Prior knowledge:
Elements: H1 2-17, H2 25-45, H3 50-65, H4 71-91, H5 100-116, H6 123-147, H7 149-161, H8 165-184
Amino acid sequence: KDRRRFTLKFISLLQSKMFRHTEEACLIQGIISGGLIPMLKQQAMIENVEGVEIARAALQVLLPLLRWDLGEVGKQLQIVSLIGLINLMNAAHPIMPHHSAKIICELFACWGHSNRYLNECKGRELELCQTSISLTTHATAIALALCGERAHQTIAKIRSSDVDPCLVKHITEVEEHYRQLLQENKIHDTHYYNAD
Length: 196
């Protein structure tokens, strides 16, 4: 009960800070990595309804943050949001199929934005961009596993509507990673998803 209350407080705090200023990106990142991710990780490790109860509010916070890509700080916030989303999907997996199209589309948009700017990045920002791309691929594979058929249908629509070879290659990589996660039975392995 306390875990759910604190998680909702973190989400409420994030909602109040989200669309004001990019200067608050560090604060938002701290709230996600120091508060929300540990709570979601705990909820993912125990089977109860708390994760399901906070899912909609958490998605409303985390999915828009995947679009924040303003320099190094924005990329760090994007990465922390991806980690939060992975933990949320595990914590609230019973209802994730209801949100699959939204999740898949945001993950593909996140990947596309990072991929587009990959050649323009240098140094630390390049490392963060590569991490974001890798983590987006992983999060999309997790979404395929937890969201089921609806997620597969969304990806099939994306594949059929775009002829960009880079996007088709990314879809193939996601599907390969998805099969690998299933084979290794690592869909619910939350110890990989820390914000450290």
